[in-house]
Recover the amino acids of this structure.
């Protein structure tokens, strides 16, 4: 037991720890060096096509493996990071890590052809005029193409400087990246702004999903957003699908895909690859059964 408090110890992060964490971040300048010391890590949450059950991608979510505090979620440190260009270093680190991992997976013979990986970018990333060039430099060192990546920006961040964001999104889209508007429905944009955007996905905020099966207003809002998205040729990803009733309702409404604890929590790289392999094995088995029953 004593050993668990030693070097290999970990603690489960709780919100009450935030003040303590902020103290450490600010006094030790820990986050400043976290990127260089390789203390950041990326988890992957699978994204599932609701009609087929196949995995169609995963979202990369940053974690900080702190030497003293253990594994920290973004809520513990991103707010501090977002106050300065530190958040740009973090986002670029995650982007680069994802590009290197995708390359590794390809080299290991994993079928990534139908898998898109989402990366979250803060407002500061989208406001850099040379973002596309900076990203290309990173990708040039790998075998990862823009077309394998989805770049996510929250609706809220987008609305802070909508004109700039529209231009950046256009440029990135032209380079082949897919674009997702994250936490959609919470950022006070009017729905009509969507028609001016070259985005590919909207991620319906999990506050709408929580009671989608039981609250008629959440159900109707979700239905309306899905109809609008359909008109605008945007694919909808539901966030926070936690239960069977969530998933059944979303599928019945024709929502294309979902992420959430019902399918899987964000997983470390190995856990994600196991989950993907298992899903692909099941998918090819059912294809095989379907083929057999046809012939
Ligand atoms: P997000 O992009 O909306 O990511 C989804 C968050 O919801 C993740 O939290 C995920 O763990 C959580 N989640 C997924 N399924 C469920 C569910 O069924 N129920 C519930 N209650 N939660 C679920 P996480 O990993 O703590 O990330 C929080 C936020 O931090 C992200 O929200 C994103 O805005 C930000 N973030 C994460 N990684 C990065 C990054 O590399 N760069 C930037 N700029 N932001 C990041
Ligand atoms: Mg996201
Ligand atoms: Mg989100
Ligand atoms: Mg969110």
């Amino acid at each position: 037991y004593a050993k668990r408090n030693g070097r290999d110890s970990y603690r489960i992060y709780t919100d009450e720890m935030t003040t303590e964490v902020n103290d450490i971040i600010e006094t030790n300048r820990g986050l400043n060096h976290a990127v260089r010391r390789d203390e950041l890590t990326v988890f992957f949450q699978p994204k599932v096509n609701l009609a087929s059950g196949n995995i169609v991608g995963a979202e990369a979510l940053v974690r900080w493996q702190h030497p003293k505090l253990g594994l920290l979620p973004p809520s513990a440190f991103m707010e501090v990071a977002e106050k300065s260009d530190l958040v740009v270093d973090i986002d670029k680190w995650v982007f680069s890590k994802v590009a290197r991992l995708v390359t590794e997976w390809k080299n290991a013979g994993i079928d990534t052809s139908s898998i898109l990986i989402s990366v979250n970018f803060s407002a500061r990333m989208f406001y850099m005029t040379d973002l596309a060039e900076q990203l290309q430099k990173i990708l040039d060192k790998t075998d990862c193409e823009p077309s394998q990546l989805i770049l996510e920006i929250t609706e809220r961040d987008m609305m802070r400087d909508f004109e700039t964001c529209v231009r950046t999104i256009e440029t990135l889209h032209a380079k082949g990246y897919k674009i997702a508007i994250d936490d959609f429905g919470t950022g006070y944009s009017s729905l009509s702004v969507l028609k001016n955007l070259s985005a590919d996905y909207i991620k319906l905020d999990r506050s709408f999903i929580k009671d989608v099966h039981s609250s008629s207003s959440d159900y109707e809002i979700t239905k309306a957003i899905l109809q609008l998205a359909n008109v605008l040729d945007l694919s909808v990803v539901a966030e926070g699908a936690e239960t069977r009733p969530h998933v059944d309702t979303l599928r019945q409404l024709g929502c294309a895909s979902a992420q959430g604890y019902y399918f899987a929590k964000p997983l470390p790289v190995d856990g994600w690859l196991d989950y993907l392999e298992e899903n692909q094995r099941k998918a090819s088995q059912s294809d095989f059964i379907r083929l057999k029953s046809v012939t």
Summary: Strands lie at 40-49, 55-66, 70-72, 116-120, 149-154, 178-184, 201-204, 235-238, 257-258. Residues 1-10 have pLDDT under 50 and may be disordered. The pocket of magnesium ion (ligand 3) is lined by residues 182-183, 203, 239 (CB under 6 Å). The longest helix spans residues 269-294.
